[in-house]
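User: structure tokens for this one?
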Amino acid sequence: MAEKTQTRGKPVMMAKTETQQKLVLMTPSAAEKVRELLDEEGDATLGLRIFVAGGGCSGMQYGMTLDEEQEGDVVVEVEGVRVLVDEMSAGYISGSEVDYVDSLMGAGFTVNNPNAVSTCGCGHSFKTAGDTGQARSCGCGH
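Assistant:
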């Protein structure tokens, strides 16, 4: 994949960095749901922000929101969706796949993260090999 950039006023095609190409993947069902949500908002400046924050029963938890690009974000296009990731979160989710599941148990986004060494039964929190600290209950019932 390539992207256009300006060099001395002339557009030049440059290969995306490996980090951008492998930052996050998205299943077609997840991309379709995000596009629906973006269409409902009707704001072309928005993209899907994926982030990581402390908390949950495994120490770290995923978050997603529709947001505008912020300074320092890594921005990639995945399955036709603009994905925004802050620099800190990028290290935790690199190589992850976002999926959207609609089942009898409920509907929602899940993150399949190859960096996670343990996850909560609810699938919303995780721990990586470099994490320290105690696991806490997230109240998910698992």
